């Protein structure tokens, strides 16, 4: 079970761990602390989490990306992105700042500017390995936000918003070095790939074929398939199926819905079709997958 506290690592010992994140008000933020092996249950939240790894290692799925988490890495989980741990070490230490987009509603930054700072390039994994100076700068901001949260003095929320904005800029200095965002600045092929990913995220429940996405992008299915293969080494259908699979794992892990009800929610024509689809990806049918989680 995850261990969460609202203290920094050097203060975490002796505090009572919480089994889950505390209730997060729309106009507040919270710092959380996780350590040790983490459960592999898929989650989908309505808030942002900016996560700094201080020690240990993990493999974390965020959307369609498999992240290699190690000391001094920083990663982002955006709202409504399914995420879960595939594996995590006993010495894993993660420090997170968690907030809803509404927390920044009273800031002096425009929505478009905030989106630029928070939303990762679609072709880039939302993780960055920080250089020592970057890590120290970002950890310093986490510590300052922790003090604001703990002391709750006058104007502490306003001060916290300013610190969070400073964190965004420090973070963006590192993340904008993503090779995907700089290697294809004018490539029509890369633009097509990122537009395809956005469309899959929007239409995966109703559109299941490459042809349907090709029609939305005004290209042939053959051309779209060739572009995706060239850009990623994977075929286009892989991304459609992975998006469905993320929701399937999430529902099987966190809901009391039956396999038939999940099949209906994901718009499969029959429960047996859904079971075959799920087994092709995971190696287990949905019922066995759910039993394995419970054991």
UniProtKB/TrEMBL annotation:
Q: Which PROSITE patterns match?
A: HTH_ARAC_FAMILY_2
InterPro entries per UniProt: AraC-bd, Homeodomain-like_sf, HTH-like, HTH_AraC
**Keyword Acetylation included in the entry's annotation:** no
Keywords assigned: DNA-binding, Transcription, Transcription regulation
All copies of domain HTH araC/xylS-type, residue ranges: 194-292
Entry's Gene Ontology molecular function annotations: DNA-binding transcription factor activity; sequence-specific DNA binding
Q: What is this protein called?
A: HTH araC/xylS-type domain-containing protein
Classification of source organism: Bacteria, Pseudomonadati, Bacteroidota, Chitinophagia, Chitinophagales
């Amino acid at each position: 079970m995850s261990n969460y506290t609202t203290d920094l690592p050097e203060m975490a010992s002796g505090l009572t761990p919480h089994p889950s994140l505390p209730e997060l008000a729309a106009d507040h933020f919270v710092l959380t602390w996780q350590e040790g092996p983490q459960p592999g249950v898929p989650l989908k939240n309505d808030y942002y989490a900016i996560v700094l790894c201080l020690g240990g290692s993990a493999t974390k799925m965020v959307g369609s990306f498999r992240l290699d988490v190690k000391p001094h890495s920083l990663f982002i989980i955006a709202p409504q992105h399914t995420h879960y741990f595939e594996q995590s070490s006993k010495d894993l230490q993660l420090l997170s700042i968690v907030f809803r987009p509404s927390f920044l509603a009273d800031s002096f930054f425009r929505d478009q500017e905030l989106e630029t700072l928070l939303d990762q390039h679609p072709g880039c994994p939302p993780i960055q390995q920080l250089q020592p100076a970057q890590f120290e700068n970002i950890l310093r901001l986490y510590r300052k936000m922790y003090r604001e949260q703990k002391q709750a003095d006058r104007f502490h929320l306003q001060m916290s918003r300013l610190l969070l904005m400073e964190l965004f800029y420090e973070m963006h200095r590192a993340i904008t070095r993503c090779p995907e965002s700089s290697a294809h600045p004018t490539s029509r092929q890369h633009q097509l790939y990122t537009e395809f990913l956005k469309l899959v995220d929007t239409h995966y429940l109703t559109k299941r074929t490459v042809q349907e996405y090709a029609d939305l992008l005004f290209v042939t299915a053959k051309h779209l398939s060739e572009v995706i293969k060239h850009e990623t080494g994977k075929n286009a259908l892989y991304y459609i199926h992975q998006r469905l699979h993320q929701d399937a794992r999430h529902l099987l892990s966190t809901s009391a819905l039956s396999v038939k009800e999940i099949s209906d929610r994901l718009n499969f024509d029959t429960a047996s079709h859904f079971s075959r689809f799920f087994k092709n990806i995971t190696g287990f049918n949905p019922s066995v997958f759910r039993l394995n989680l419970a054991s």
